[in-house]
Design brief:
The chain has 15 helices and 12 strands. The chain is of the alpha/beta class.
């Protein structure tokens, strides 16, 4: 089976495959007692983190998000066989030159659109960093990611800056320079040492916008920590729930990762801001939106396929307007205006834990009627559920001729007990096609 030659008639590059994971919510333990023992101390410093810990231990349970599913998903996407479109492309390459082509198995790039942790503790970040390293993604050249509201969970997240210190190499278009080994301190593991090395690299040789931790005294002086419960006319709204200093975390965003060999540009945004309990919304802010506008209008990116990542959906996804106000993106309309203005081809989000793929509202169409701009989410890649839209899954976007040609969602048949967990293998993966372009017609 292969697509007609018309799909490849104008291609100058081989088809590009992008894997999209989201909301893994990595926990460092699967034991309720382990969660209480290791998280109670940081939880006592924050009302929101304390409530989140109680929710994890007594309501959701530590098995709600299975980090092994992320491990299996990352392995699966890196071992995928060529798609029909890629097979057709290979058939157009002379045999003598095929040996010079890069490997076509697997995806070309991986993105994770936020909520990598649950309570934004050091142990969760260290576990997630170790998981990515074990998946062969430690260098950062094949993976891009952004924070979600769970990664910037409390004001201390702005002080400790664990997200930047552990994952800085996945948010830049250049490599983090190697550093000499650092001796481990008491109660630290290799992942923690790596995070300190990375924090120092970011501080000394990469960019001040993504520096290491800020001392608590300096944070208080700068107003980065909340000043107690003050009466606020915006109380009860998302804008009133965002705590002081939330915009500081956006100083390193947007970041841009051009992939000129594929003709693709990836831009990462941060909508994650610390908020009061029972709020989970997001805010980009005028400064970040202005920087996004400046990046997208650069002439060197004019002909590239543009991918923008943001954790919160850029379009309304809640049926309840009050829920949208509390848990949605505060500046949706302004973001959508920029996405349409620069004809961003693909906007990827997380947050909802439900899979969808649909046209960006009011987007123009091509001559064949297919939309020019899309927005999509795979759902959580680790959620222990066999309910269709909420199954643990990831999406694969296949791009050729500057357009989305096909979208496939690969989902897990989730193990229900320890016996199934031991037998878990790639054979427990299935897939469904979410979209195929009009000219992507497989023929026998």
């Amino acid at each position: 089976m292969s697509p007609p030659a018309s799909v490849l008639s104008q291609s100058v590059r081989r088809p590009f495959r992008l894997a999209h994971f989201s909301d893994p919510h990595v926990l460092h333990t699967t034991s309720r007692w382990g969660l209480l023992r290791t998280c109670i101390r940081p939880a006592l410093t924050s009302h929101k983190r304390f409530l989140g810990l109680l929710n994890l231990v007594f309501k959701r349970g530590p098995h709600t998000f299975n980090r092994r599913l992320l491990t299996h998903g990352l392995a699966d996407c890196q071992a995928l066989r060529p798609s029909p479109l890629q097979t057709a492309y290979l058939s157009t390459i002379p045999t003598s030159a095929s040996g010079e082509l890069p490997p076509i198995n697997g995806v070309d790039h991986i993105v994770i659109s936020g909520d990598i942790t649950n309570l934004a503790t050091r142990s969760e970040f260290a576990t997630a960093a170790d998981l990515l390293e074990r998946a062969g993604l430690s260098s950062g050249d094949r993976l891009s990611l952004i924070p979600g509201n769970h990664d910037i969970y409390v004001p201390d997240s702005l002080v400790d800056r664990f997200f930047h210190r552990f994952f800085g190499q996945y948010m830049s278009s250049f490599s983090i320079p190697p550093r000499s080994p650092t001796p481990m301190l008491k109660h630290e593991d290799a992942s923690t040492v790596a995070s300190r090395d990375l924090g120092a690299s970011l501080t000394t040789s990469v960019a001040p916008a993504v520096s290491g931790a800020v001392p608590h005294e300096e944070a208080e002086r700068q107003g980065l920590l909340p000043k107690g419960d003050q009466k606020d006319p915006t109380a009860g709204t998302l804008s009133g729930a965002i705590l002081s200093g939330g915009a500081l975390e956006h100083q390193g965003f947007p970041y841009e990762r051009p992939l000129p060999e594929h003709g693709v540009l990836i831009v990462g945004l941060s909508s994650a801001v610390p908020q009061r309990p029972h709020y989970a919304g997001g805010l980009l802010g005028k400064g970040q939106l202005d920087r996004l506008d400046a990046i997208l209008k650069r002439p060197e990116y004019a002909d590239m396929f543009k991918v923008v990542m943001v954790h919160h959906p850029p379009v309304p996804r809640y049926n309840n307007p009050n829920r949208e106000q509390r848990d949605g993106l505060l500046d949706q309309e302004e973001l959508c205006r920029i996405l349409r203005l620069h004809r961003v081809d693909l906007t990827l989000n997380g947050h909802m834990h439900r899979t969808y793929f649909e046209p960006l509202p009011d987007t123009p169409t091509y001559s064949d009627g297919s939309p020019q701009s899309w927005v999509g989410e795979p759902g959580s890649c680790t959620f222990n559920s066999n309910y269709g839209p909420m199954r643990a899954r990831y999406n694969i976007y296949e791009i050729a001729d500057g357009r989305v040609q096909r979208v496939v969602s690969r989902f897990f048949v989730t193990p229900r007990d320890a016996a199934q967990e031991e037998k878990f293998s790639e054979h427990m993966l299935d897939e469904e096609v979410l979209y195929e372009a009009p000219n992507y017609v497989c023929q026998d």
